[in-house]
Design a protein that fits this description.
Elements (H helix, E strand, L loop, with lengths): L4 E9 L3 H19 L2 E6 L4 H7 L5 H9 L2 E6 L14 H11 L4 E7 L12 H4 L3 E7 L9 E6 L2 E6 L5 H17 L3 E6 L5 H14 L6 E6 H10 L6 E4 L1 H14 L7 E5 L6 E5 L16 H14 L3 H16 L17 H14 L2 E3 L3 E3 L1
Parallel strand pairs: 1-2, 1-3, 3-12, 5-10, 8-9, 8-10
Antiparallel strand pairs: 4-5, 4-11, 6-7, 11-12, 13-14
Length: 373
C-alpha cells in the first residue's frame, strides 16, 4: 500500500499511561519510517493530569482534537489522588465523556494466547490451547450511562443506578458482532440475564431478530453467571461474545486473566465507522508502577496494531509488529507481570529496545509488494 498520512491524538493520561504510550508511539514511528507512512502524533491532556491543569478530565480542546483525528490512542486514567472528587468530576468521568463525545458505542477486545506465554495462564495448557475469541461490548448504554442518584428515604441513605437500553442501541452492536463472527468461525454467543432483567429480555429479543439476517452465523445464549464460569472451564467454546456494557466490562477483564496478565490485552472503541476510533489497553493506571520502568507496554502496542488493521487497513504493518513481539517473547524477555522466572524480567525500556531491534532487523523489500515482512 502506498504511504498514508494519518493524524493520531495521543492521550497519555495518568500513572503508567505516559510510559506505555511512549513505547507504543515509538513503535508507530518506527513503522512509519519502515513502510513509508506519516503518522502525525498529537498529544493532549486527559484524565487526572487534565484535572490538575484545566480543572476538568476532558478539556474541550482535547475532545475537538479527537473528533478531528483519524484515531486516538489512550494510555490510562485515574489514581488515588482524584478519588476524593465527586463521581462526575473524576478522571473516569472524562473517559465516559470521551466515548459519548466521539459517538463510540462498540468496544472490541480480542483474546488470543501467545504460544510463548501459555505457561503464565492460570489454566492448564490443554484448556487454553485453542483459546481465540473476541468480546464485543455495547459501550454507550446500560447502567454506566443511566441516571444515578443518592437520597435519604425514611432516614436511610439510598443509592440508585438506572440501566437503560433501547432496541436501536442493541441492534447496532448486534449487527457488528454478527459481522465479526461471520468473518471468523461463524459462532456468536450472546450474554444476558434474560431470566431476571427487563433490559436483558429486550436484549435477547432484539439479538434473535437480528440473527435472521445472518443465516451463516450460529447463535446461542448464556446467562452472564454461567458465561463467567464457562470462560474458565472451556474458553475454546467461544468465538465472538456479544454482551451489554456492564457485563462486558466484567467478562472481558476475566477473559484477560486467561492470558496471564491484563497488561497484554488491547481494545478498540468505535462508532459508525472505524475513523475516529479510540484504542487503548484495558489495564488501569497502576500508579504504584509509575516511574519504575516496569510497566508492560504490550497492551498498548497491540492496541496500535489494532489501529493499523481496523482503522488504517495496514495489515502487513500490524503483522510485522506482532511478529517482532513474539520473537522477543520467544527469546525469554518479559516485564515483571508476565514472567514465570525472575531471570526473564527486563525493564520496560529494555523490552522496547529489544523489540525495536527485532523490527529493524526483520524488514525486507519484496518485489511484488514493496516493503514486507
Amino acid at each position: 500500500m502506498p504511504g498514508v498520512h494519518k493524524k493520531i491524538v495521543v492521550l497519555a493520561g495518568d500513572g503508567i499511561g505516559p510510559e506505555v504510550t511512549a513505547a507504543a508511539t515509538q513503535v508507530l514511528e518506527d513503522c512509519a519510517e519502515a513502510f513509508g507512512h506519516r503518522f502525525e502524533l498529537l498529544p493532549h491532556a486527559f484524565g487526572g493530569v487534565a484535572i490538575d491543569a484545566f480543572g476538568t478530565p476532558l478539556p474541550q480542546e482535547t475532545l475537538s482534537a479527537c473528533r478531528a483525528a483519524d484515531a486516538t490512542l489512550l494510555g490510562a486514567v485515574g489514581g488515588p489522588k482524584w478519588e476524593v472528587l465527586p463521581l462526575d468530576q473524576r478522571p473516569e468521568a472524562g473517559l465516559l465523556g470521551l466515548r459519548r463525545g466521539l459517538g463510540l458505542f462498540i468496544n472490541l477486545r480480542p483474546l488470543r494466547l501467545r504460544e510463548s506465554l501459555r505457561k503464565i495462564s492460570p489454566l492448564r495448557i490443554e484448556r487454553i490451547v485453542n483459546c481465540d475469541l473476541e468480546i464485543v461490548r455495547e459501550l454507550a448504554g446500560d447502567i454506566y450511562f443511566g441516571r444515578h442518584s443518592t437520597a435519604m428515604e425514611a432516614g436511610v441513605e439510598v443509592a440508585r443506578d438506572e440501566a437503560v437500553y433501547s432496541v436501536p442501541e442493541v441492534e447496532r452492536v448486534a449487527r457488528y458482532a454478527f459481522q465479526r463472527a461471520a468473518q471468523r468461525r461463524g459462532h456468536l454467543t450472546s450474554i444476558d440475564k434474560h431470566n431476571i432483567l427487563a433490559t436483558s429480555v429486550l436484549w435477547r429479543k432484539t439479538v434473535v431478530a437480528i440473527a435472521k439476517k445472518y443465516p451463516n452465523v450460529t447463535l446461542d445464549h448464556q446467562y452472564v453467571d454461567n458465561a463467567a464460569m464457562q470462560l474458565v472451564l472451556r474458553p475454546e467454546q467461544f468465538d465472538v461474545i456479544l454482551t451489554s456494557n456492564m457485563f462486558g466490562d466484567i467478562l472481558s477483564d476475566e477473559a484477560a486473566a486467561l492470558a496471564g496478565s491484563i497488561g497484554l490485552i488491547p481494545s478498540m472503541s468505535i462508532g459508525e465507522t472505524p475513523k475516529g476510533a479510540l484504542y487503548e489497553p484495558i489495564h488501569g493506571s497502576a500508579p504504584t508502577l509509575a516511574g519504575k520502568d516496569a510497566a508492560n507496554p504490550l497492551g498498548t502496542i497491540f492496541s496500535v496494531c489494532m489501529m493499523l488493521r481496523e482503522s488504517f487497513g495496514l495489515r502487513a504493518e500490524a503483522d510485522w509488529i506482532e511478529r517482532g513481539v513474539d520473537r522477543v517473547l520467544d527469546r525469554g524477555s518479559r516485564t515483571t507481570d508476565i514472567a514465570d522466572d525472575p531471570k526473564q524480567v527486563v525493564p520496560t525500556s529494555v523490552f522496547l529496545e529489544q523489540l525495536r531491534k527485532e523490527l529493524s532487523e526483520n524488514l525486507r523489500p519484496t518485489e511484488q509488494h514493496g516493503w514486507g515482512v
